[in-house]
Structures are given as structure tokens and as C-alpha cells.
Inverse folding.
């Protein structure tokens, strides 16, 4: 594989950074964006393009896409990570906090896809992978705004697949369970059939697969990578 380009939004640390490293190792030229500046530093290490900005800003995302296109002229893969939204007892979550949760966990994807999908349609191919959560199908009270917003993301990926599969542009969600970039506790670990936390590298490998030609017939899916944690069929 040569001359393929991957954009990672929210790639400064954790699963996003691991995805950037894996895609670079697989031969992609990588563009990495984060709000912290860590994405810019990582991109420099990987010989790619770094940009500091927010995935809650249409202007920042537009500039990031423009810089990527100016440098390489194409976008073959887009990885959308997210930050952390509000958490509180359900009836104590304010209107503002619900809106923030939607911004963090759903609109981050909508904004980036709105800009990148037309590029992929024009070049007759591309893959988008969104980092979601294993709890999207079995909502947990510990992640209320995430569970609600990402249920919407599960619907969005289906709507996108219906419309853009004919253009050879694919979108899938990765659903991580307890991953080592999160605080570890014995109680959480013993609740996982595999009896361990997953690694950011395992999520990155799944992302890289879904972006690859090996996954060319996979779109509109939400793939659990959770060590067997979720029991829903």
C-alpha cells in the first residue's frame, strides 16, 4: 500500500494516538489533530501533519481538512475520537450538559464527516471509523450522556451506509470496553470474561482493519471490542 492518507481527529493520546501510530506503521501518511497539542507532537514523530484544534469547532476541522488536502490531495481514512462528556445522576443532568454530551459524542463525528465524505466520494473510495463505546447497546448509568449520544451515532452510521456505500465510502463504529487508557480497578477487570483490560493497541488494530481493503465489504456496523463484556445478542 502506498500513498494512502489517514486523518485522526482526537489523536493526541489513548486510543486515537495508538490508531495514528498503527496506521503510520501500516504505510499511511497521517494527519493528527487534538486540542492539547499532543497530536501535533505525535504527527511530527510520525513524519506527518499535526494540527491543534477542537472537534467541536467547524472552523478548526475545516482548516485541518484543507491542510491535509494541500499536503497530500486525498483522504483515504478518517478516524474520529472523542473527549469526555458530562456525568451525573440522570435527573440532575442539565440541559446544557445534555447538549455538551451530544457535542462531544455525536456532533464530533457529524462535523468531520460533513467535510471529509465529499472528498472520499470524489475519489471514489474511503473509510471512516468512529471510536464509540461498548455500552451503546447496554446503557450504563455511569456514562449517561455517552450512552444516549452514541445510540444516536449507531443510527447515524446506518443512515450513512445506506447513502454512501454506492460510492465505495464506508463507515463503522468501534465499541471499546474497559481499555488500559482508563483507570483500572479489580471490580471492572473481574467483570470481563477475559479477566483483563483491553489495550489501546488492540483498538488501534481493529481500526486499522476496518480502514483496510480487508474490510471492503463491511459498512454500517458497530463492532464490540470488549473482551466479552457485553452479553446482548
Amino acid at each position: 500500500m502506498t500513498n494512502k492518507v489517514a486523518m485522526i481527529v482526537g489523536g493526541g493520546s489513548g486510543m486515537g494516538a495508538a490508531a495514528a501510530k498503527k496506521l503510520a506503521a501500516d504505510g499511511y501518511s497521517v494527519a493528527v489533530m487534538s486540542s492539547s497539542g499532543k497530536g501535533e507532537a505525535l504527527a511530527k514523530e510520525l513524519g506527518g501533519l499535526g494540527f491543534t484544534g477542537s472537534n467541536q469547532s467547524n472552523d478548526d476541522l475545516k482548516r485541518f481538512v484543507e491542510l491535509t488536502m494541500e499536503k497530500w490531495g486525498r483522504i483515504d481514512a478518517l478516524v474520529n475520537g472523542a473527549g469526555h462528556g458530562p456525568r451525573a445522576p440522570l435527573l440532575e443532568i442539565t440541559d446544557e450538559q445534555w447538549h455538551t454530551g451530544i457535542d462531544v459524542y455525536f456532533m464530533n463525528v457529524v462535523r468531520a464527516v460533513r467535510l471529509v465524505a465529499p472528498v472520499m466520494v470524489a475519489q471514489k473510495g474511503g473509510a471512516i471509523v468512529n471510536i464509540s463505546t461498548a455500552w451503546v447497546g447496554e446503557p450504563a448509568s455511569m456514562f449517561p450522556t455517552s450512552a444516549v449520544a452514541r445510540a444516536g451515532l449507531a443510527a447515524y452510521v446506518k443512515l450513512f451506509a445506506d447513502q454512501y456505500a454506492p460510492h465505495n465510502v464506508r463507515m463503522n463504529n468501534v465499541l471499546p470496553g474497559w481499555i488500559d487508557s482508563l483507570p483500572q480497578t479489580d471490580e471492572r477487570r473481574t467483570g470481563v470474561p477475559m479477566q483483563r483490560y483491553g489495550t489501546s493497541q488492540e483498538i488501534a488494530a481493529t481500526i486499522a482493519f476496518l480502514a483496510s481493503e480487508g474490510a471492503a465489504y463491511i459498512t454500517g456496523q458497530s463492532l464490540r471490542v470488549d473482551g466479552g463484556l457485553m452479553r446482548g445478542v
Notes: Helices lie at 14-25, 38-45, 58-72, 95-122, 144-164, 186-190, 200-211. The longest strand covers residues 169-176. The longest helix spans residues 95-122.
